Amino acid sequence: MAACTISMVDEWKRKAIEAKDKSKTIEMAEEFKELTANIIAHTSFGTSFAHGREAFKAQTELQMLCAASSSDIFIPGTQYLPTKSNLEIWKLDRKMKKSLKCIIESRLNSQSDNFSYGDDLLGIMMDTKNDGPDKLKMNEIMEECKTFFFAGHETTSNWLVWTVLYCPAIELERMASKDMKLGNLMIPKGTCIKIPITMIHRSTKYWGEDANEFNPMRFINGVSKAANHPNALLAFSVGPRNCIGQNFAMLEAKTVMSLILQRFSWSLSPEYQHAPVNNLTLQPQHGLPIIIKPLQF
Ligand code: HEM
Prior knowledge:
Layout: H1 2-18, E1 24-27, H2 28-45, H3 49-70, H4 84-109, H5 121-128, H6 138-162, E2 171-175, E3 180-182, E4 185-187, E5 192-196, H7 197-201, H8 204-207, H9 246-261, E6 264-268, E7 276-279, E8 281-284, E9 289-294
Antiparallel strand pairs: 1-9, 2-5, 3-4, 6-9, 7-8
Subcellular location: Membrane
Membrane topology: Single-pass membrane protein
Keywords: Heme, Iron, Membrane, Metal-binding, Monooxygenase, Oxidoreductase, Transmembrane, Transmembrane helix
């Protein structure tokens, strides 16, 4: 984490120092996307990082195509038709799976003397392959790699982008597995419920009159005491399906922000246009240009 971040901030400093006024506008949204992809690829694939990045690049393109087609009206069966977008989706899917399979196979062939596949995420998952009932199949390992990249990349990247404004996942969805009562509402089995995290995070009912103000001191006694309901902070969800990467993400954000703040002063560029858009995670539609100035030359 720290090594990836330091190489990014060193590059920023070099660019700023080269400039006449010793400052530089940096497109933070793009930089954070690249940084968090590097961090998650290193964590997942260690030494096979470069190949992992290739696989994740294909997954990102695939995700964008799927997000675009998910806004179309869905006609059952059309996902199997060889349309231009489906052909592109299938091609990227094959490319990504091939890269991941290559990484796993080369790791299988290079098992070290102590019969371990390594201490990155891939190695740990492959080591479980050797044991009895928890054994993971190649397919399952590939799916887990995809999940971790999807769940741990844009979330953290957009979290860094907004830092103290918004949470990156703005709503949760649940489907009722049986008829149930929720407060005064009867929820029939099969109903989809959306939980509006952003609205809950801005509710004066839970957070008090200053709900819309940036007040980090409200967390001084811990997250569960910050509001008048212990689960009012839902950024990582709560319960058995809450975010498995929460501690990783917290560590990543603290590492990145502290390494940046130690080195630069910064201000928002006049080019910035405030237009958050929900593309599965909340993103700045027109990027985040920030002017940075090194604190020391
Ligand atoms: C600021 C960053 C992050 C935010 C705001 C975030 C938010 C969330 C939320 C709200 C959920 C629950 C989704 C639901 O219940 O419908 C979730 C689940 C999950 N997150 Fe994160 N996440 C972040 C970073 C990460 C990272 C870095 C990883 C992995 C390294 C990760 C892996 C996962 C996984 C695997 C799940 C599914 C858990 C399950 O269904 O059992 N997340 N995340």
